[in-house]
Amino acid sequence: MTDENLLLERLAIEDVFARYAHTADGYDADGWVECFSEDGIFEIESDGNRNQFIGRQALHDFICAHIRLLPGTRHVMTNHLVDIQGDRAQHRCTVTGMLSRPDKVYTFISGWYESTLKKVAGEWKIEHRIVHADNGANFIKGELAVHIKPFLYWMAANGTSA
Fold it and tell me: Is the pTM of the predicted complex or chain greater than 0.85?
């Protein structure tokens, strides 16, 4: 692969993740799900606990619950590392998530993503994405808990333990 092609592929991968953030924060559930392959997996890991959502229907249910139970989010991803090997890629980046409420803007998540992508019909799709949350204890107690707990309960009831 030429340097120019490698750069174009890397930019296409970064676009997938920008679309992922903009669709989640813009309440576009279908657009968010389209970032994933048909058998895509989204996984949340915090304090050694892992919860997965596998396949298009589970992904759609997850993002709809996120939109309904955590409106007002902004996902910010930085420090992208991309390793492309043919039609597969590995990606890692830092994530910070803001949650806007009338009284305050909270940092609702801090951590990193690690993702595996594959090219499907000429487009990069997320095959497996894990969000590693640094601040899981804040989800259960403290001022953020009142905003996060309904979503945590939903995930526990509807996800699959990994």
Answer: yes
